[in-house]
Amino acid sequence: MIAPEFQKRLPGADLELVRRAFEYARAAHAGVRRRSGEPYLCHPIAVALILADMQLDQETIAAALLHDVLEDTDVTLEQLREAFGPRVARLVDGVTKLGKIRWSPETEPVSLEREKTRQAESLRKMLLAMAEDVGVVLIKLADRLHNMRTLEHLPPEKQRRIARETMDIYAPLANRLGIGQLKAELEDLAFKYLEPQTYEAIAKALESRGHDRERYLQQVIEQVKQALAEAGIQAVVTGREKHIASIARKMRQKQRNFDEIYDVLGIRVIVDEQRDCYAALGVIHGMWHPIPGEFDDYIATPKENLYRSLHTAVIGPNGIPLEVQIRTHEMHREAEYGIAAHWRYKEQLRPDSGDRSIEAKIAWFRQILEWRDELLDAQEFVDSVKQDLLPEMIYVFTPKGDVVELPAGATPVDFAYRIHTEVGHQCVGAKVNGQIVPLNYKLQNGQVVQIITSKARTGPSRDWLIPSNGYVTTASAREKIRQWFRKQEREENIAHGRHLLEQELRRLGVEMKPEDVLKLFPRYQKLEDFLAAIGYGAITPQQLAARIAEHEDQRVRTASAPAAASTPPPLQVTGLRDLLTRLANCCKPVYGDPIVGFITRGRGITVHRADCPNILHTTEPERIIPVSWGETPQQHPVTIRIEAWDRVGLLRDVTTLVADEGLNALSVLTNVHDDRTVTILMTLEVASVQQLSRVLQKLESIKDVYDVRRVTGGETTAPAPR
């Protein structure tokens, strides 16, 4: 029944395993229907046919037919292994585990930190599945593609969630594996649900000129075929249209309207040999005038996913812009099917399979697996992977003319480490197009970058690892810097780590011992190892702040869990009820801080931070009583000190950020010093230590701000408690 569809796509292949898998899946899914009303079996068949179009092996296609039986039926993994062998069972098990990944919450609200952690864990699971067998992810990509094709049967909110996952994760992953065919369709389908109005506008613009374009392209194809034949070049020439999401992206990137996008219409020229690519380019440039700035040689400089082709744009017949892609048959197969193009030659496609093309395709993936244990912070892991998945790249030149590909936003430090690790370690400066630039300068396309090194410099600066300084954006450079510090004197790293930890605790105004903070990082068993990791940058101050703040807020929530259904007061005094309480002005405690109460004369209980100097030095310790926070966080005032280089617009940037965070500023005091620095004292209403930590980190990222910290009781002038 199903055999002809597969035989048509895989002529001459032994399809016995595929036939058995089809019969097994049909029996397992018997009587089950999809939301669309069609039999459930239609879905695994469609997924398997997508992979058959990619010319994959019969084990992978069989696994595609069976990919939902473990999750949706009573079939066990052991039964699958007995019926179809270990690899098919392993592929189905891998796809089943990937199916349980949740990139974003479906209904329940979650904290920002938990959502980042969820995404990081999902990425880890995806990459680990690829480590076992890349076929797992190829099946998942095909599964996602068919689900996107039938997405109209789901509720709108679910459509948007799945479309966002597709655009953020699956389409970039298909691109990174070089599978242009899947990437284009996944992007277009996701774009249709994420930006329906823009999608419809571009689709109508394309459709309105459809017949004219077909006639025009046929005319161009015939002219190119004839010219190439006269030049003795054998070629296959076809027409092509840029897909809708790509058109929208280019319109935004180049700030042009639809009529100004040169490569909406295009042709593809496929030749036998690489030398014929350049010969064909010469013929086409002889036929029509090339458009300046629209030529790219991805044969000499392949993209990171190893895509190879010549791209040019010309003013074609009737003055209409036309894009031309020129490549060999081998390049075309790799451009369409990427890593899957090598599959037919391998029984199992693994990162260690020995195929150099496969190794190069997923060299980035090897790096990610090596980094995952170092990137303890969820957001850092997510950002690192997405940066490597997403296609926004820039191309800069060495002084010798060699091309270096880097992610958009890369700096001279990233460039130096891409050239060589030692160049990065000895980097003391940089020139761009002959001009000295700071090391955190953002490189642009086409610039010539020269790194200034000094043998007197023995290693990188610790400041390069501080994200807010903006020196390093690539995970590879960051890891090389960490490795250097990891190899340095252990005692030096421990001392520096202790200093950073104490500094972060002071900045947050939190009273914790290093041994207590260690418990928040279960990977480390010994305090010295933990402090050394902070010292060489494996744990950043941002990671420390996030864990400490989350712990403080959780500790308070747990300690103040209600004993009854009644709503607890904002503050609870041990053994006493209905007492008037107020927060001390000297230390301004915030929800989550360790606190104590001080019995005043005639004014109830004044609540201080436990480490408030006025409490520590009181002459009446018998008036100190235990208090705790209520269950529900209340808005409490807290004062922060911002140190910065003075400039026009600084205060505006600070207050705008505070407003964007939804915080209320009770007071703002500024003091400009003779050395052109400025101190800003700002009192904000915050609900928790975690919220405070997030605001402090964001304030530190403002240009010219070099220190932000919480003002504690010891830094304010206040009378003794009474």
UniProtKB/TrEMBL annotation:
Pathway: Purine metabolism. CDD domains: ACT_RelA-SpoT, HDc, NT_Rel-Spo_like, TGS_RSH. GO terms for molecular function: hydrolase activity. GO terms for biological process: guanosine tetraphosphate metabolic process; nucleobase-containing small molecule interconversion. Gene3D superfamilies: 3.10.20.30, 3.30.70.260, Beta Polymerase, domain 2, Hypothetical protein af1432. It comes from the Bacteria. GO terms for cellular component: plasma membrane. The keyword Zinc-finger does not apply. Keywords: Hydrolase. PROSITE patterns: ACT (PS51671), HD (PS51831), TGS (PS51880). NCBIfam families: spoT_relA. Belongs to the relA/spoT family. In eubacteria ppGpp (guanosine 3'-diphosphate 5'-diphosphate) is a mediator of the stringent response that coordinates a variety of cellular activities in response to changes in nutritional abundance. This is Bifunctional (P)ppGpp synthetase/guanosine-3',5'-bis(Diphosphate) 3'-pyrophosphohydrolase.
